[in-house]
């Protein structure tokens, strides 16, 4: 089976009030899914892994910078042109919901549990 690039989507900023500690906790939750995806033979991808360094290198001082609007969501949209599936983790998230909508428009499979990805290994 060819490895799939799977976008892991879920809350990052949602519900945090932009508190850096809470956003870091949300990113850790997203990253917890990376190992099971990788262990199952696939390539995990999280939009923030790409967007945050891009934002920083553009001189922005965080997700509240006006430039964030031009980087955060567009990064995920661009990644979805290369991803083979989306793993939508629980929790309210406008960005993750947008990722799911784009994936469905493009015919990309959306999974809601890591156990549902092809070749899942415990």
Write up what this structure looks like:
The chain has 122 residues and is α/β, with parallel strands linked by helices. The chain has five helices and four strands, in the order βααβααβαβ. The protein has a four-stranded parallel beta sheet. The mean pLDDT is 96.
Write the layout of secondary structure elements.
Elements: E1 5-9, H1 20-32, H2 34-39, E2 43-45, H3 47-57, H4 72-79, E3 85-88, H5 94-105, E4 110-111
Parallel strand pairs: 1-2, 1-3, 3-4
Helix pairs in contact: 3-4
Task: Give a short synopsis of this structure.
With 122 residues, the protein is α/β, with parallel strands linked by helices. Helices cover 41% and strands 11% of the residues. The chain is built from 5 helices and 4 strands; from the N terminus they run βααβααβαβ.
């Amino acid at each position: 089976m060819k490895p799939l690039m799977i976008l892991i989507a879920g809350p990052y900023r949602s519900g945090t009030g932009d508190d850096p500690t809470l956003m870091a906790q949300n990113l850790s939750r997203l990253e917890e899914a990376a190992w099971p995806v990788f262990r199952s033979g696939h390539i995990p991808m999280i939009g923030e892994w790409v967007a945050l360094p891009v934002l920083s290198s553009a001189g922005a001082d965080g997700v509240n910078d006006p430039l964030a609007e031009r980087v955060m969501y567009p990064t995920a949209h661009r990644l979805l042109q290369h991803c083979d599936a989306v793993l939508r983790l629980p929790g309210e998230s406008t960005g993750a919901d947008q990722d799911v909508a784009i994936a469905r428009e493009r015919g990309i499979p959306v999974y809601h549990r890591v156990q549902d990805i092809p070749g899942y290994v415990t």
